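[Automated response] Your request has been received and processed.

Submitted sequence:
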Amino acid sequence: MDKKLYLECYSGISGDMTVAALLDLGADADVLGQALKSLPLTGFETRISRVVKAGIDACDFNVILEHDNHDHDMEYLHGDGHHHHHKLFFLNWFHHHHHDHDHAHLHTHLHSHGHSHEHGHGHEHRGLTDIVEILNGSALTDRAKKLAIRIFQIIAEAESKAHGLPIDEVHFHEVGAVDSIVDIAAVAVCLDNLNITEVIVPVLYEGTGTVRCQHGVLPIPVPAVVNIADAHGLDLTITSSKGEFVTPTGAAIVAAIRTSTTLPPSFRIAKTGIGAGKRNYGRPSMLRAMLIEETTTSAATDTGKQNAAPSLKEQPVTRRDDEIVKLETNIDDCTGEMMGYVMQRLLDAGARDVHYHPVFMKKNRPGYQLNVICKEEQREVLQRIIFEQTTTIGIRIMRMERAVLTREVRKVRTSLGEMRVKVCNLPDGGVRCYPEYDDVAAMSKASGKSFLEVFNTVYKEANG
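Generated structure:
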């Protein structure tokens, strides 16, 4: 069964909370450790432990720096006091992206390194290009590198807008950046290790009040979070609780990985992971992550059939009718590089499908027709990306009905081993199974057989 990741952000989201939740879901800690060791960075170590939050057992992921950049004084952090020296950083998101520590044994360890950043450390500043080089110089998989870079790019764009600076002039302080690089790289590694491709995040819950950064006391949500939410169509629900629940790193992670805002009508929970945050608020600082499997209504209610593990041929045949939106525009003055970039931006923002093809336009100009398929709730965000990232001045909007065969991804045993197949229920009552590309590619590489040979074998045995 193909599993979707559902992030329940009732207590917000941050980088370390996300890593911890994914580890609790089963991401391989050894794989993560090796990947982080390959980063060309020094002065940090990581610790994975179990903690209790409001009586709930949770995983904690902690980046321990040689030079501490965490402030444990909640009064000062939220602008209510001035009795504790606070370490300042060039950009506010690196100051508060990490939920402050609330475990006594970690306090002692971290405070042993405490000292002011204003007394001659002279740390260099890194720009986005420098951070990209760090990530590209690591042993992370290509997929993990791409995701980590995308998250940093989203944050840099938000900070660029907040500070009125070109993106190539946004710099990050070295000490402030180290734990952020580690957190973001760790999120990318864990998602890649779990082979997560679909992520559902309906809403982000945020607190109220203020938070202190280099630029003074700022309102919550902070400007970077506001800019990310605006640019990527993230839904925020402001609670009455005081405190910053959504950090810029957390918001950027959601913007980069979310593929849907809507939970399926019925689903099974395959596994749950809970990641602990490190700030003391009125509500427990926890991120709950669930691996869910979409089910049909009959499959969700008929426990007996589930337990009996029916054959593929016995699956119910239904059709789901719904509506989609098609955005279409013709562009005759964009380069291929620009089109490739905007295509990825649209997919990252949740488009169901994006494609473009060459056309001849007025005055015999060669151009491209860009087509984007999405749901109505995604339309405004995707329109904004098209207007901002291309030279078009108009977009055609078509609302369409579509008939969709019910389908699910299941694991089946084949002569080549266990493989995932997409099971589609046909109108005539039949069932057709299609091998999943990633599994076929992996088996082809592992077995030395051609892609076509593996595909045909799995297809024949799954449909036999």
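Summary generated for your ticket: Confidence is low (pLDDT under 50) at residues 70-77, 80-123, 297-320. The first strand starts at residue 4 and ends at 8.
If you did not submit this request, please reply to this message.
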